Amino acid sequence: xxxxxxxxxxxxxxxxxxxxxxxRCFNKVLEHFGLKTxxxxxxxxxxxxxxxxxxxxxxxxxxRTAEMISKLxxxxxxxxxxxxKPNTKPFDGILDVLKKLNEDxxxxxxxxxxxxxxxxxxxxxxxxxxINFSGILGYIESRPSKPDPYAANxxxxxxGALPExxxxxxxxxxxxxxxxxxxxxxxxxxxxxxxxxxxxEENNAKFVANKPADIFKFL
Length: 219
Known about the structure:
Blueprint: E1 6-9, E2 16-17, H1 19-32, H2 40-44, H3 51-58, H4 66-82, E3 89-90, H5 94-104, E4 108-116, H6 117-127, E5 136-139, H7 150-159, E6 166-170, H8 173-182, E7 185-189, H9 197-203, E8 207-209, H10 215-218
Parallel strand pairs: 1-4, 1-6, 4-5, 6-7, 7-8
Antiparallel strand pairs: 2-3
Helix pairs in contact: 1-4, 3-4
């Protein structure tokens, strides 16, 4: 069996539980423009895309214009940045996993997220002080976002890791597709203990982790 040299993590829904605060902020923005809001349960099934994808899914056909989507994205960045995010925190057990991977010495850990580059760096500095990430690639408009494999390929280049030496860990179909497009194995995390069997079968995820420590069963 080929040992893994690089573990690439998604951020939201994988390392950090952001759904409640993100959902609140999305609703604030939608309310600001007089648009329909959504429940937390609905947001749980909309994860994975960048802001353009998210707002395209959140608004009706009549409001899905380039101008409106641009206004929504700009307002969301303003609202989310100013929000205290009281419910945002690492998932239980994740910090221990990151520490053990850092201590291993033979495995590098990195992050590929569709959250903006600035917010991703700020959250990681706040939530994971002392953890050494070999790269954090978030969303900026000048480079492709997931499920494009650009960032995953770049992280492999930075770390000198081949596709067969790399594993991608995420919580959504976007992450599975990103891994597939990059030609690397994927671990699907299932912290909500949902029925993901069909998702796994149809998309060739290699392993499902129902709790953070399960990641080591694959590695």
